[in-house]
Queue: 2 jobs
Job 1
Amino acid sequence: MADKKKMSAEDILAACRTGGGDSPAPKAKAAAEPEAPKAEAEKPAPAKKPGEMSAADILAAARSGGGGAAAKPADKKPGDMSAADILAAARGGGGAKPKADKPKAAKPAAAAKSPAAKSDAQAARSGPMDTSSILAAARSGDKPGPMSKAEAAAKGSPVGATKPVLPPMPEKPAYAKPAVKVGASDENRRGFMAVLFGSSLAIGFVSLSATALAWTLGTARFMFPNILIEPPSKFKVGFPSDFAAGTVATQFKAQFGVWVTNVEYEGQQQIVALKTVCTHLGCTPNWLEAEQKFKCPCHGSGFYKDGVNFEGPAPRPLERYAIRVADDGQIEVDKSKTFQEQIGQWRDPACFVPV
Ligand code: FES
């Protein structure tokens, strides 16, 4: 038989396009006798494995709308389907139909496009779909997967048809509303003051200005010499009659650092001005009227009222300042000149006023 001959892929395709292949008789026969495929489908198909089918078998099965695939059990897994099964399912839809217990030829091919088939295809789409289900859906014209807005509008789907109507926004409470507006100039002034005193930039500028001012004042002070304001070196203490013999006037100690005494030195009564500085280490002694002596509080040196040392570590007598009777008859003390006893300066008439 010629259909048992091995055919190439081109031969198979040409036979499919012409509908006849190498043997037009089966087609004509099928057209003349439409009940023949049904009879063939009712006959049990030979238990040929898919790999053992020849091209003629595949073509015969395709032309008959079911062929050997009609006898294929409907619960065959998609992975186990042969080329003949797939072709038969594509042409006749018999392999994809869930009602596989009926012969494939008993159902016309248009039955795949019936409403029942459509619903079956849609039901199958919701779960895992096998190859026949996909093909049935493709034949029915339904496009699986997401739809565009135009498709959805054509099908009357609510997807993207209308926008949801949102409820109106509630009105703002009174406390959330802005306060009464002040003038633009007030706002500007407040903003300026906030920037001037409230921002870190303003604090930085104020600190910088204060530092610059301190440096300026310091530099200006450096331009002037330090001046020690002292009491005048010459001052008047009163008339000679104000100082009785053997007395010590202490009222000038605090202001001028001088004791004015009327004492006898080397057999001569003199009014002298003694310096109130200890000759040991420079402390200030005190006049002790009861003991008739000057006593140093630091190391205990003692001096007579004429200034000569007699106890303690002081190495020499107190010093004298220059003294004289001024033109007005008052005694004037000059602290710019001092006289020391150990070198014989006390004999200088400039350091005493004879009484
Ligand atoms: Fe006056 Fe030492 S300082 S006794």
Job 2
Amino acid sequence: MRPLVFAANWKMHVGPPEAREYLRAFFAAGEIPHERAVWFFPPAVSLEAVAQNVAGHRNVVAGAQDIYWEAKGAFTGAISAPLAAQAGARMTLIGHSERRHVFGETDEQTGEKLAAALAANLQPVLCVGETLAQREAGETTAVVTRQLVAAFAGHSGKRHVTIAYEPVWAIGTGRNATPKDAAEVHRAIRGWLKGNAPAVVPFVILYGGSVNLKNAAELLAEHELDGVLVGGASLDPRGWAQLVRTAVA
Ligand code: 13P
């Protein structure tokens, strides 16, 4: 069986007591299968509760949903990579489409954040993806490449970076990319990384956007997908416990 990553992005849901209760219910289903990894991205206030409650469970880690690029200082409301690490984060999402499209984060800022994550030993999970208008205009590869170029500008060291391909039109809409569509973009990302960031190993590339119990098996049967990044369908602990056990052909 090939190794697969199941990443849960809780977005602005699940406070600390709810997180403890969630994990109790999630682990009641048993330890996760050997070759699978589960990454939880809770809101910052719940990070420590999640990190503490996944400790000791094999292949399960906590990560931040976002970080600020400065390490410390007068930046009210922001959370730096070292602070997230102190709370128990081992990784962090960078450039999630909601950061880009709701909060106006730029490509350049994702580059700053990627550098800050690496400096603090947080594994970055860089999110890329096109809008519906961009897809319909045939600009998908160009947009994703532009996002990769900006994020990786100036990084040549040997690093573990995960990429999450999350087409904006598929997030929270119930309309997932087909396995074939996702695979095509994953191949383009892999090709770009091989040519332009060969020291970034390994290339784990996740797909995100309306993944659920109904479509996970079909998506994961596509070998270009090394796992999934899931929003809505990760909020119910029992459903998520089932999803991470999806039988994959
Ligand atoms: P949904 O699974 O709710 O579509 O969200 C996807 C996502 O944005 C994960 O980061």
